[in-house]
Amino acid sequence: YYENGGVANLQTQRGCQLKCVYCTYPLLEGHKVRANDAAAVVDEMESIKAAGIHHVFLVDAVFNRPEEHAAEVCEEIIRRGLEISFTGYFVPKGELPEFPQLLVRAGCTEVELGTDSLSDSTLEGMRKGFTAAEAIDFSRRLTAAGIKQCHNLIFGGPGETEETMAESVARMDDLQITANIATIGLRVYPGTDLAERA
Predict the structure, then answer these.
(1) Per-residue pLDDT tens digits for 45-74
(2) Phi/psi of residue 8, nearest 5 degrees
(3) What sign results for the dihedral spanned by CA atoms 109, 113, 117, 123?
(4) Torsion angle, CA of 129/134/136/138, rounded to 10 degrees?
(5) Residue 180: beta bridge partners?
(6) Alpha carbons within 13 A on the beta-carbon side of 37
(7) How far does CA 152 lie from the centroid of its chain?
(8) What is the C-alpha separation between 84 and 45, in angstroms, rounded?
(9) What is the per-residue DSSP string for 35-88?
(10) What is the pLDDT of residue 86?
(11) DSSP H/E element including 106
(12) DSSP characters for 134-173?
């Protein structure tokens, strides 16, 4: 499977404390985060590597929430000297100043960011939990550390206007990123805040 283009997936935690209006992760996995012990996570990485696989995709709702758990996993990889690369889903916000460098030392080569917008009014409408300035700062810190990035943008969320769309595009153009995936419109799933608004 891996040799024919598949991906080795690993989950370090379940649950998501974020409150994005459209997201089903809290409905599927719960709002409370249940994190695996960092040593157990890296044990699993070691078994994956022993099977001949050298790259892992972390399928957590967002790997860096809580950021302390992500840092513990990285520190355990470094402590063991495990040479494996990984990527995963990230929220574009970070409090730990050394976190991007820690990711690199642990083998993180690229990240996929659920940015959604770089306009504060749209971010507020989608209840993303970060500001455009925080997302831009985090992206620049990742770039400085040498981590490739794919930012996901979603146009048409609550409060979106032509002006907020233009603002997001202009700000995204200013970032030195590897890729951007942009979609238009949000699916309305039962049980989400977006469904209640609708």
Answers:
(1) 999 999 999 999 999 999 999 999 999 999
(2) -85, 115
(3) negative
(4) -100
(5) 151
(6) 3
(7) 10
(8) 8
(9) EPPHHHHHHHHHHHHHTT--EEEE-SS-TTSSHHHHHHHHHHHHHHT---EEEE
(10) 97
(11) helix 99-106
(12) HHHHHHHHHHHHT-EEEEEEEES-TT--HHHHHHHHHHHH
CB 19 within 8 A of CB 127: yes
Residue carrying structure tokens 């971010």: 123
Residue 48 corresponds to which tokens in the numbers above? 């994956």
* Structure letter (DSSP) for residue 25: H
Residue at 181: amino acid letter: I
State how far the Cα of 156 lies from the Cα of 192, in Å rounded to an integer.
17
Joined together, the tokens standing for residue 151 give 């930012």
Q: Which two tokens stand for residue 107?
A: 């083998």
Percent of the chain having pLDDT more than 70? 100
pTM exceeding 0.85: yes
Both structure tokens of 19: 């409150």
